[in-house]
């Protein structure tokens, strides 16, 4: 790769409370990194028994939930329900309106359920689409090993080293690659031209190339935002490191539209925010089934 992308910003994801007793490390969606189109929010969540995200609405965006440890149940007002486990993903399109709950399993050892949730904006013309879910199981995700097996890549969405993901799972084009680099390993990953891209470090320290400057070491829980110019991203882990470096590399096509977000509603104008609130309160225009609905999985927290 002749021209790696430069690093625009590195942001530490500070832990904060969210939902009902859950803890999240939020990077995208904070004052310092807001509306990085098409990305709206990135949470690295930890949900212990007794905590969760009981019944709540959405409109106008997609959510991608990638579970790293434990299991999480989901249920919505359209009768959809299921469970994702370690390594599984769920892509949820809120469209014109959905109300759902996401609740953790009660692990016998009391351990937390850990994962990532990414909010992706929907193009204006799809914000009123019908809600839908697509699950991607860990066993379905293709993988590839490079640099003499020192780099392991899960190709969740997109392409890497000749391997294509199994299917398109989101309306807004997004690539998601889970990369683990052993000490002494390195990888070059091309990305689609002019897409926005970031890398969130899950474990260890990772050295990311910074255009024509010296590589920059990025520690765990930091989000690296890249500029649009350049062919892709280069990453490496020091040969002297005591553990691997793991990060999720995400890229998506920017949307040329205004973003107006009010909590779980993501629309294109203030008037549409008022309409979303009215529709939700009056159970209309996509929220009809919210009238009197309560999830089974959330009842323990809403009683």
Automatic annotation (TrEMBL):
InterPro entries named in the record: Pirin (IPR012093), Pirin_C_dom (IPR008778), Pirin_N_dom (IPR003829), RmlC-like_jellyroll (IPR014710), RmlC_Cupin_sf (IPR011051)
SUPFAM superfamilies: RmlC-like cupins
Pirin C-terminal domain ranges (all copies): 177-285
Annotated ranges, domain Pirin N-terminal: 22-120
Gene3D superfamilies linked to this entry: Jelly Rolls
PANTHER family the UniProt entry points to: PIRIN, PIRIN-RELATED
Family statement: Belongs to the pirin family.
Protein name: RNA pol II transcription cofactor
Organism listed in the record: Sporothrix epigloea
